[in-house]
Amino acid sequence: MKNDKVLLVSKEFDYGKDGIGVVSRETYNKLVEIRPSTKKLSLKDYAGKFRNPILQGVGKVFEGRALAEVMRIKPDIIHAMAPDHASLLNADIKTKIVTWHDMILLGRTKEKGLLGYKYKTKMRLWKKAHENADIIIDVSKETGRHREKYFGKKPSYVVNNGISDAFLRTDIWNGKRDGFVYVGAIEYASKNINSLVKFIHKYNSVYDEKQKLNIFTATRNPQAVIESIARVEGLKNVDDIISVIGNASDIEIAERIRKSVALVNLALEEGFGITILSAQACGTPSIVLRGADIPEVVSRNAIKCSMEELGEKAHGLYIRQSPLENRKIKYARSFTWKRAAEKINSIYDKA
After folding, report:
1. Can you tell me the distance from the alpha carbon of 112 to that of 94, in angstroms, rounded to the nearest whole number?
2. Fold observed for domain 165-332
3. 290 in Cβ contact with 306 (< 8 Å)
4. N- to C-terminal Cα distance for the chain?
């Protein structure tokens, strides 16, 4: 193994149970075990306060301070954990790498107001990051295909994400299962949370056994988000059928998942879909929408259905009360952060 100094940069290394926060944190934690020269730079320390979509653009100015820190450290390899931070790939560094973890829908730039501004800004940053990077790491073949469609080909590798050790160590539950579960962000339109709320409301109006939906999320003010959706959809008493838990530990989430009837993820797209595999690793079935843009390596063992079929499929799982087949559990548990880090480390050695 080469002894090149690696600097991982990310907006955060300690936020959330899925998405860039967990990918950055777990990648760093496993990499530093096999490559002690790996360092990290958290951009939250430089522009973390800029969360408003307009101010996020202003916040990029403050990456000038982060760039100065990059040059002080002088790594041999700089690895940006998201293409948002294109400016840091301008640095005079031997090898520049970026991880691509999102699908790209140019249609989002047609959004009005602040949201449209946010996506237009992102697209400009992603284009610049693609130009500046020497190597791209895609978290799935699907993200690679989307990226190449809009930005062209570039030297690249596919390194699938892993799942937390808490889900890998969870004992398979053979007792009575109750309730459904969702884990992840709830503020983005692509997550299709409106449909998730309508699903559990309709389920409880159709079937005799009353089931709760447990939502684990790191989204700010999640209860307010759900209440807003309920008002828009004209749904009442959703507090009785939806429990929202913010910033729970992986162990707490795994314990709830393993005893649930199913994880229900109605996202229209996922760059990878860590939480789907996490549920399967716990022995819990997962349900996704047929036709959703979710990587095949993640969705291959999920139950795929339309919104019209969803209630019936979910009720069927409640009636069966059985865990996922052993071969599917074993498959999900093969996605480890250690394996991901080893692949990334081998890419560093080739650079």
Report:
1. 40
2. Rossmann fold (3.40.50)
3. yes
4. 12
Contact 8, 28 (CB under 8 A): yes
Which CATH superfamily hosts domain 6-162+336-350?
A: Glycogen Phosphorylase B; (3.40.50.2000)
What does 269-320 look like in DSSP terms, one character per residue? B-SS-HHHHHHHHTT--EEEETT-B--HHHHTTSEEE-HHHHHHHHHHHHHH
Q: Let me know: does 194 contact 232? Beta carbons within 8 Å.
A: yes
From first to last of its 351 residues, the chain has per-residue pLDDT tens of: 567 899 999 988 876 555 788 899 999 999 999 999 999 998 877 754 555 544 445 445 557 778 888 989 999 999 999 998 888 888 889 999 999 988 765 556 566 677 677 777 778 888 999 999 999 999 999 999 989 988 999 999 999 999 999 999 999 999 999 999 999 999 888 899 999 999 999 999 999 999 999 999 988 899 999 999 999 999 988 989 999 998 899 999 999 999 999 999 999 989 899 999 999 999 999 999 999 999 999 999 999 999 999 999 999 999 999 999 999 999 999 999 999 999 999 999 998
pTM of the model as a whole: 0.90
